[in-house]
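Progress note, sequence design subtask.
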């Protein structure tokens, strides 16, 4: 079956369709405009005005507490512990006797060598005061006799000089007289010197052996090399103390330091004398201190730099071996233009920038130069002015010229808790009142 439509009906249908399209065009255009407007992003942000305030550049790191002075006391000899005079926790002074080792054999050696030394000393004194003068007197008498004989020979030599020159007097007679004269000179010059050297050498040898025995005996008495507190005593009375093995540890807890290893870039701004703080878990107020050492060389194992912070007045709660957090102030600017540190970003080219909420309702990117920076605030040298509303929250990865809506910061948790607590209390009070009314 074939449907036939007349030309008049066909044109009426086409005209109605065209009229409907024309009427709907304004509505379609308005819908597109609204869609485009809805596509423009609107980001909620919070702002903080740039302001003038003092700022400090700080370097923070974890550190381990050590005593500035510590002595691990070890004996120089091997012997049994006879007596301990201190316990763990005992306060000791430099030179104080801490322990005694068995030393009967060493005491006997001292007495023996002391006797030998005294004997050598007596021999030396006798040689100097008695024997040597007698030898010298005898030598002088012999020399006088020889000199008389020499004088006689000299006179004879002189009287027979002419005969000698003529060959009538033997040469040996003259040589004998000269030898006797030289023997006298040698005896006077060397006799006394050699005798004194022999006596002195015997005495010095005996004295050296005596001093060595005394030193060995002194090694059996263990004394403290510093003032401090005994923190370790691994042995007991009767145990064998081995040479060069620790038997006591003494620490000077009056001066404590915190050792930390920090990166090269952070250590470059630190100097000896910079103020610092030591924060101990569980301790409310930080302990004041100062930087006492910045190592001049890198640690080869970690490529970091070791820094010491010495506590000005150690707290009793601060003890060697604890882990603390040290905060060192490298530089302070009194009147700086500061913004919150989270508000400063860095672009792909490595430049720092901030986002400022403009009066037109859009975020504007400002390239800035940052000076001193810490965990809370950053100094802005150039780029923004005091009072500029810098976006401090919601600005991360936000494109330039983005439409923003500035919101008020949320109230602190404490205040919110207080308000909620007051509301609960008021509700609790209101309920009984309603019950009474009922």
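Output:
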């Amino acid at each position: 079956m074939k449907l036939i439509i007349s030309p008049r009906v066909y044109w009426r249908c086409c005209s109605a369709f065209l009229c409907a399209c024309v009427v709907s065009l304004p509505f379609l255009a308005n819908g597109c405009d609204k869609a485009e407007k809805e596509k423009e992003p609107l980001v909620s942000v919070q702002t903080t005005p740039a302001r003038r305030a003092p700022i400090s550049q700080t370097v923070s790191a974890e550190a381990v507490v050590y005593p500035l002075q510590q002595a691990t006391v070890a004996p120089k000899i091997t012997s049994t512990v006879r007596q301990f005079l201190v316990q763990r926790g005992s306060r000791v002074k430099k030179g104080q006797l801490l322990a005694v080792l068995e030393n009967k054999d060493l005491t006997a050696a001292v007495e023996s060598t002391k006797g030998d030394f005294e004997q050598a000393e007596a021999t030396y004194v006798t040689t100097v005061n008695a024997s040597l003068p007698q030898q010298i007197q005898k030598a002088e008498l012999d020399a006088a006799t020889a000199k008389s004989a020499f004088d006689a020979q000299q006179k004879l030599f002189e009287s027979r000089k002419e005969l000698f020159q003529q060959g009538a007097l033997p040469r040996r007679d003259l040589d004998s007289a000269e030898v006797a004269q030289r023997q006298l000179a040698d005896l006077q010059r060397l006799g006394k010197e050699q005798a004194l050297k022999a006596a002195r050498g015997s005495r010095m040898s005996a004295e050296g052996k005596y001093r060595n025995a005394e030193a060995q005996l002194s090694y059996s008495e263990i004394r403290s090399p510093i003032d401090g507190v005994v923190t370790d005593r691994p042995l007991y009375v009767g145990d064998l103390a081995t040479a060069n093995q620790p038997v006591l540890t003494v620490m000077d807890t009056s001066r404590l330091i915190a050792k930390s290893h920090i990166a090269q870039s952070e250590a470059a701004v630190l100097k000896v004398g910079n103020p610092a703080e030591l924060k101990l878990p569980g301790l409310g107020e930080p302990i004041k201190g100062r930087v006492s050492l910045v190592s001049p060389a890198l640690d080869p194992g970690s490529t970091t730099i070791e820094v010491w912070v010495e506590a000005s007045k150690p707290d009793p709660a601060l003890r060697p071996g604890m882990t603390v957090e040290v905060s060192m102030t490298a530089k302070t600017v009194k009147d700086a233009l500061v913004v919150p540190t989270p508000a400063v970003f860095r672009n792909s080219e490595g430049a720092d920038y901030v986002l400022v909420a403009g009066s037109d309702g859009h975020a504007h990117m400002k390239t800035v130069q940052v000076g001193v920076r810490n965990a809370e605030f950053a100094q802005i040298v150039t780029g923004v002015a005091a009072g500029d509303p810098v976006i401090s929250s919601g600005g991360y990865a936000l494109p330039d010229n983005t439409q923003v809506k500035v919101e008020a910061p949320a109230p602190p948790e404490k205040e919110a808790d207080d308000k909620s607590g007051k509301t609960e209390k008021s509700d609790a009070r209101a309920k009984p009142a309603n019950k009474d009314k009922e």
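The chain has three domains: 48-56+251-406, 75-99+223-246, 105-218. Work on this subtask will continue into the next period as scheduled.
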